[in-house]
Write a structure and sequence with these properties.
By secondary structure, the protein is of the alpha/beta class. It has helices at about 5-10, 15, 20-25, 60-75, 90-105, 115-125, 140-150, 160-180, 200-205, 210, 235, 265-270, 275-280, 285-300, 305-320, 345-355, 385-405, and strands at about 30-35, 40, 45-50, 110, 130-135, 155, 185-190, 215-220, 245-250, 260-265, 335-340, 360, 360-365, 375-380. It is globular and about 60 Å long.
Length: about 425
């Protein structure tokens, strides 16, 4: 008989955990300190931060901080006590749901405690074992995990490849005809958070009548950043009315906690009474609800925040392109930088950027992406300055020269737990 713990230990911590002794506290689980903003403290040194999903700069907006503080003083963190269905409901929760639905042009919405948990649960509540899920290959982990838990069939299509999507829809329809029951749920994203490209919603919705599917859209990075009013990728592409279920989190543009899904009232009501992760979980605390109401208000009434975000994103992206960097096909504020190099070179470059240039950004390496590739991901916000952008562009130009020259290959990377 095997010991489950023994297997875990022999697994060396898993694909990411195997590097934990060298990475913990620096490359993984780093601690950024000080006021949330474009400038924070990392290991005692000031850095320009490009790793926070604080798109509109609302995290420390004075009106937001005021409401957050007042709500915490008035209600504490316990109220309302209990799950929404039992004893955790309030007029403020319902008000937030109504305002979110109105903003997204839908009949109703339901609040969710977390985006990741929410998406997994929505997939579970919508699909029976006879239903078929069709989803984009580069979907976020919350979608992948929700799909993995699905008891029925699922088909994945190549990223944003409409021809391949049609093939998978044909397979899905053939299976449903054979079963004699079931339907199709198509899941995609408004903005793919790693590459920054938008989902091809315009093309996807043209297939709805032909294949009879419903669309669940994860627009975590599009909510607040895209569309004339900030209502997201559906608004940006002129197809919001064709999106059956619109999902987003408060963790990006709203710089908060929680999520929601909006759609037809009958469907939202069904979700409300059947989504287990909300039925059996404590309601969102009142400070978060009131804080999110204020954030939503600012998102709608201060268009200058989104305008400034896009000005900064355009300056950063144009500057990188002018310097010869490959930033892929992004058409959103998400700014990836694609480079070539091994893990040792990448970690040495990250340390150089952080320690000598004061630039803090996220990095993605093998096993998340293929060996020999490096992706830096920069998240511009409305509160970054022109000087932040200039300094960052210069830092990347100089470190890229070192990377191409092989300088980082010769550098020994210390055990960060001992530094």
């Amino acid at each position: 008989m095997g010991d489950i713990f023994e297997r875990l230990v022999q697994n060396s911590g898993g694909p990411l955990g195997q590097h934990r002794k060298r990475a913990h506290g620096y490359f993984s689980f780093p601690k950024l300190e000080g006021e949330i903003g474009s400038h924070m403290i990392f290991r005692g040194k000031p850095v320009v931060v490009w790793s926070l999903n604080n798109y509109l700069g609302l995290a420390n907006h004075p009106e937001v901080r005021k409401i957050d503080g007042e709500a915490a003083a008035q209600f504490g963190l316990a109220y309302p006590m209990g799950a929404r269905m039992m004893s955790g409901n309030s007029v403020h929760h319902e008000k937030l749901e109504k305002e979110l639905a109105l903003f997204e042009g839908k009949e109703d919405s339901i609040l969710l405690n977390y985006g990741y948990q929410g998406m997994v649960s929505i997939i579970d509540v919508l699909c029976s074992r006879h239903d078929v899920i069709v989803y984009d290959a580069e979907s976020h982990a919350c979608i992948i995990d929700g799909v993995r838990l699905h008891a029925g069939q699922r088909y994945v299509y190549k990223h944003n490849d409409i021809a391949d999507l049609e093939k998978q829809l044909q397979r899905a329809n053939a299976l449903i005809e054979k079963q004699g029951k079931g339907g199709i749920l198509l899941i995609t994203e408004g903005v793919f958070g790693m590459a920054g490209d938008q989902g091809k919603l315009k093309e996807i919705v043209t297939l709805k009548d032909k294949y009879g599917f419903r669309i669940l859209l994860d627009d975590a990075h599009g909510f607040g950043t895209l569309g004339k009013t900030g209502a997201g990728a559906g608004e940006e592409q002129g197809v919001q009315d064709k999106i059956d279920l619109y999902f987003s989190t408060f963790a990006k543009s709203m710089a908060s906690i929680g999520a929601f899904v909006a759609g037809d009232k009958e469907i939202i009501d069904y979700i409300r009474y059947n989504i287990r992760s909300q039925i059996f979980a404590k309601s969102l605390p009142m400070p978060l609800v009131l804080g999110n109401l204020k954030r939503l208000e600012l998102l709608q009434t201060k268009p200058e925040l989104k305008k400034k975000l896009w000005e900064n994103a355009t300056k950063l992206q144009n500057g990188l392109r002018e310097r010869g960097f490959d930033i892929g096909k992004t058409d959103t504020p998400v700014t990836p930088i694609y480079m070539k190099g091994g893990v040792e070179e990448a970690t040495a470059m990250v340390m150089d950027l952080r320690e000598n240039y004061g630039i803090f950004c996220s990095i993605v390496l093998y096993p998340v992406i293929p060996r020999g590739h490096i992706i830096y991901r920069l998240i511009p916000t409305a509160i970054h300055s022109d000087e932040d952008i200039k300094r960052t562009l210069e830092a990347f130009s100089e470190t890229k020269v070192k990377l191409d020259a092989g300088t980082y290959k010769a550098e020994a990377i210390p055990d960060m737990a001992e530094v």
